[in-house]
Each structure stands twice: as C-alpha cells, then as structure tokens.
Amino acid sequence: MSMIYKLFVDENIKTWKKFSTKLAIILIVLALLGALSLSKLLQYIDEKNDINSERFVSSSEEGFKGEIEILKEQLQDNTLSKSEKEEIERQIKIYEIRIKNQIYRTDWRSEALSDTSIDDKTLEIVEKNDFDGYMDQKQEKLKKKFDDKQISQEEYDDEKILLELQKKYGISKDDPKIFYDYRAQVISDIRQKQKSIRTGIDSQTNKVLTEKQKKQYEDDIKISIYKIENNIEKADSTSDYKMTFESFATSFVTAFIAIFVIIVAGSAIATEISTGTIKFWALTPNKRWKILTAKILSLLFYLVVITLIMALLTLVCGKIFFTTEGNTYLFVKDGVVQKIGNTAFIIEYYFAKIIPIIIFALFALMLSVVTRNTSVAIALSIATYMGNGIMMLIINTYIKKDWIKFIPFNNLDIASKIFTNFTSPMTISAPNTFVQNTSLIFSLGVLGVCAILMLVTMYDSFNKRDII
Questions:
Q1: Residue 430 has what pLDDT?
Q2: pTM
Q3: What CA–CA distances, in Å, run from 61 to 97, 100, 105, 310?
Q4: How would you write 27-46 as a 3-class SS string?
C-alpha cells in the first residue's frame, strides 16, 4: 500500500504541474463566472420589467376604459332584453371598480371580479378591500356546497385546508410590491394533486396512480404546505436569482469538469506509452497493477478536489452577489418535512452530479489503455458524453422494451434520483417512460457493474500487453 501511495503522490504532482491542468481550472472558473453573468443579466432584465410595470398598469386602465365605452354603446341597442342590459351594466360596474381601486395585478380581487357568478355582496367586499371577508365568504360557499351534497367530505376537507392557508398567510392578498404571488401557484399545484389522490387518476396524464406516485403526491403536498408556512419559494421560481445562479453553475461547471477529466483520463496511459515515459515505471520494481491503480486514484482525487473547490466557489459567489436564500432541499422522512440547508445541499448536489462523470472518466481511461491512442480515447469519450442524452431520448421514445433500462446511459441521472424533490431550471423535459421510474439502487447497480467491467478490461490489457 505504501508503494501505491507513493505512486499516487507522484502522479498527482505530475497532474497538478501540467499547464493543461491549470488551463482547465481557469476555464472551469470562467464557466462559473459565465453562469453568474447570465444570472445577473436575467435579474437586470426582470428588474427593468418591474420598473416598467407602471406602463402595464396604464395600458390596462386604458383597456378597461375602452371596454366600458364599447359596453355603453351596446346599451344603446333597443333590441336588448332586460337581462342582457343588466348583464352589460354589471360588466361596466366591474370595470369601473377595477379602475377606481386599481385592480390590475393577479390577486384575490381580480379573482373575485373574474367570477361569472359574482354577486353584490362580493362587489362590496372587493370595494372595501376586505380580504378576510372574501376568504370567509368562500368558506361559507364551500360549506353550503357540502351541506347540499354537491361535494364529498374529502373534497370539502381538502379545499378547507387550502382556504385556511390562503387566509392565514395572505396568499394573493393585494400588495403593490408584488406583481404575482408565487404561493398562488403552489396552492393550485396542491389542489391538482389532492384531486389526483382522491380520484386515483393523475390529473396531468389521465393515468391510474400507482401507490408510489400516490405516496409521492402526498409528500409533495406536505412539502408545498411547508413552503407556504415558511415562505420558501418553489425551486423553479424565477424571482430568486441565487437559485437561478446555482442551477446554472452546477450545470455549466460539471459539464466543463467532465470534459477536462475525460481529457486527463484519455491521455493518462496512451500519452505515456506514445512518449515512452511509461517505460520508466515498467522498469522499476513496481507492479503494473499498482501503476494503474495509482493513476485511477489520482484521477478520482483530481475530480473530487476540483468539484469541491467549485462547489465552495459557487457558494461564495452566491453569498456575495445575491441576497436571497438560494436552493434548499426539502424531503419527507417518517411523515415529517425535513430540510437540507443551502451550503450542504449545493455541495452534495455537486458530488451527486459527478457520479456519471466518474463512469465516463473510467471509460476514457479504459480506451486509453486498450487503444493506446490519445485522440481516439478522448474524442470517442467526449462524443459519447455529449451525445448520449439525445441518443437515449430517441431510443426511449420509440423502443418500449424492458431491456433498455439496463443500458448504462439510462441510469446516469443519479442526482435526480437522490434529490427527487428538486427540479433544476436547467432540466430538459423528456417524455415520461418507465426508465425514469427505476430506483437509485438499480441505477447505481447498473453503473457499478459497468465500472467493474471497465476496470477488469483495463487491468487485463495493461498487465498483459507489452508496453516496452
């Protein structure tokens, strides 16, 4: 072991002294800065749009006034029935209330005025800006529906919970500083999942819910309620630019890390054989398997150190340039919602993202040993890394066989299996297939078998073939 450690140290000294290693670090840092620049640009654009929101208010007011004029012209039509005239007058009154109370944003007042069954009591509540009164009225209407047996006990209980949340936390309550209350969308998501659980049919796909999906929806509802109670925005929220930056950073940085680790792995053996430097190690008392083991350990050490450095830099940049909390991870354990803080989550997420990179690094190293051609090893590995997603998307879309879940490329998305409740804005939606439902243990098992096969292949080739 001491000899392997010495070889490992020597290999690391060589790796970190290389100009290509220093260049790789610089380019990876630039990828992080690129993610930061893009996030700040999006923040600037959105803030500029917020400044221009007054123009939206002005244009909405002009639009409502125009609608009033049109409706007044329609009232001049003598052929209209009494009920039609009353409906037009009611619409005019609603537009006038909107203008008088500046109801232009998406809030509870806008929702109330958009209700086709709105009555005079509701109009009075809107004019008084009585949010609590509106919530009480909705609860009364809900109770009446239940008493009249228009809805079931489950429907009543589910909706009652949501109305109580809305009232308690002022969800969609008019606030001139807030153009859109993200919590309203959270409530909508909860309502949709409640319905799916009640009916047993997924409201999005119209397919029967499995027990696993039902349990996931129940956990999602608990997490959503926890977010509301603790004022935590959704992971795909566009208003937390630190979240956006961290999502961009992990995607950009890990992509660059993968490319440079593949380059290091692809040239690890082939370059030394082509230049003849491998002969020095072969002529020493060191056994070949120890030489190769030291190179593998050095490669893994390089990957871990670079990943840790970039995770810490991401956290530092997020802390300096953004004031929001950033990405946190919520999950349900034993029926209770638990939280992983921003620092721990970002570091863990980075390391979850490099698991597939290890597989591609071993693939590149295996090709380097077997082909002894640096160009072939690097080019083929990078092409496979960059093209496997599109290739598997096509295969999974058109081939509906059980065996495709054993394809290694279908099991690379380990991060999403570890952090099942986290959705990055960088995630590209793909058709839902049974492959996506494979477990974390299954995917790790498939990748583990692949790693073992590649290690056996490279050790066998390196030990038996002539390198002198």
A1: 47
A2: 0.82
A3: 11, 10, 11, 49
A4: HHHHHHHHHHHHHHHHHHHH
